[in-house]
Design a protein that fits this description.
Pathway: Amine and polyamine degradation; putrescine degradation; 4-aminobutanoate from putrescine: step 4/4. With 264 residues, the chain is of the alpha/beta class. The protein is built from eight helices and 13 strands. It has a single domain, classed as Rossmann fold. Strand 5, helix 3 and strand 6 form a beta-alpha-beta unit. It binds the ligand N[C@@H](CCC(=O)NCCCC(=O)O)C(=O)O. Ligand LF53FM6H binds next to loops.
Length: 264
């Protein structure tokens, strides 16, 4: 069987005097080295992407983290200074991919901003600058020069027994994670179940209720240490296995009508 492919919605970045559709190496490296799947980076456009045409051609979606935030208008709020910076093209690409992948039973792993997009895509809301609230930890990216130190594993979260994420991580109870976020889930979308939380109550992992397949989101960054940290590795291998299972099914004559017609 050919190596399966997952779609990853790009971020919009500006440098060297132009606009780039980009993603950090850590996501595509973990996908290839640990999940053993290839990644097609999807250019981020406010309009023009054909979501089903993308999903007809891939076996999963991987929704990455980003320093930008989901635009508050997407969860019924006015935008304030604290809610930025924004990446509306990324929002416009990710949210339809997330909704449609869930409808079609296409495996999805959502990470950090990806978990927040998953929650908003399914009708939930987000809170900004959570560290300013009484009793909350500081979950923000550590202000250090070295990227390994930014993504250092440094906080415990508690994984509920018998959950999807417990199965994929290969454990329940306390697990140590890294943390690089200013926002978090405020109102959980109706179709999501909370599967892990931090001691301060921050939602750290969710899964889609009654999902047809692998459909989880984590607020931390398993991709960064996927080759060396056991729970991170287990999660990416479980994602890769789900993607291969989907690819095998898709390859077994259940290709979407559009592709079958195009193939003649
Ligand atoms: N912007 C959101 C999501 C945070 C996230 O995805 N962080 C990973 C990238 C970190 C970085 O490079 O700054 C939030 O802050 O909650």
């Amino acid at each position: 069987m050919p190596k399966p492919i997952v779609a990853l919605p790009a971020d919009i970045r500006e440098f060297e005097g132009t606009v780039w559709h980009a993603t950090p190496n850590q996501y595509v490296k973990a996908a290839l080295k640990v999940a053993d799947v290839m990644t097609f980076i999807i250019p981020a456009f406010e309009e023009g992407n054909d979501t089903d045409a993308i999903l007809d051609r891939v076996d999963g979606i991987l929704v990455s983290g980003s320093a930008t935030n989901v635009h508050p208008s997407l969860y019924g709020r006015e935008a304030t200074e604290a809610d930025g910076p924004f990446d509306i093209a990324r929002d416009s690409t990710s949210l339809p991919l997330i909704r449609r992948a869930i409808e079609r039973g296409i495996p999805m792993l959502a990470i950090c901003r990806g978990l927040q997009e998953l929650n908003v895509a399914l009708g939930g809301t987000l809170a900004s600058e959570i560290h300013d609230q009484p009793g909350m930890w500081d979950h923000r990216k550590p202000n250090v020069p070295e990227r390994d130190h930014m993504y250092a594993i440094r906080q415990p979260v508690f994984v509920r027994e018998g959950t999807c994420i417990a199965r994929h991580l290969g454990l329940s109870g306390e697990v140590q994670i890294n943390s690089l976020h200013r926002q978090a889930i405020a109102e959980t979308a109706p179709r999501l179940t909370v599967e892990a939380t931090a001691e301060d109550g921050t939602i750290e992992a969710v899964s889609v209720i009654d999902a047809k397949g692998f459909a989880v989101g984590v607020q931390w960054h398993p991709e960064y240490w996927a080759e060396t940290d056991a729970p991170s590795r287990a999660l990416f291998k479980a994602f890769g296995d789900a993607v291969r299972d989907y690819a095998a099914t898709r390859g077994a004559g259940t290709r979407p009508a559009k592709l079958a017609a195009a193939a003649g």
